[in-house]
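@channel sequence for tomorrow's demo:
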Amino acid sequence: MQSLNISTAAMRGIQQALDNTSNNLANLDTVGYKRRVASFSELLSDSMNEQPAADSVNRDTPAGLRIGSGARLGLTKLDLGQGSMKQTDVPTDVMIEGEGYFLVTRKIKDANGAIIQEENRLTRDGNFKVQFNADEGGYVLHTASGYILTDNNGVPFVLPEPVQSIQISQNGELMADGNPYGNIGLWKVDNPDQLQQVGQNLYDAQLASGDNPATKYANALEDGIATLRQGALEVSNVNMMEEMSQLVNIQRAYQLNSRAIGISDQMMGIANSLRSR
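structure tokens (generated this afternoon):
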């Protein structure tokens, strides 16, 4: 019976690892996507020390017989490796070189159209577009999902009129038609594994409406651990060959545990038939 529990727990974890690998492959071409790596941990184990006889030869392992309960998916760790650069020459495309995340925001409205709160998100996706926003009363830089880029105080950039040219320096200074509009906020997260993914290549910033991000995160541009590159995008850091190799390993592990369940079922059937005679 224990073998059934071990193989079942393993197959459950392997299925979750398969889902993780599938998600990585699905985001192969997603701008700024960071792959996740599945790691397993052992479930509760025990040791039987009441052996009828001592070993006749020397052993390196501890005395007794170790009995495990299988394994589970312990963590999907975020791989923070830098993705390669894709040159686009689009002025509103911005690539992060180094650590850090853009802070983007959008307003949440009720059924009557009244603004009730602001929703703050972190992202590495620097594919921004300029569009008029009635709530802000001007033109803003927004993501494909409608979130607006903010400055180093967490305030959205608002351009009062259409502009002909936009310049973004390496230290984040944004200028439009020669007029300065502040500095882009780029924020360092101490433990990115704790970031909660909320879809659309976004992470929950864990900031309430109106909060200054500087109270929670360090400015990566001021700390010198990151720079910005205008006219380029950071592509996904997913390695297709590595993910396909992982996919083969997952398939083999699933087949092995599936066969172990079948053999355990046969052994239990034999034991039942012997008792019935």
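heads up for whoever presents: The chain is about 20% helix and 30% strand.
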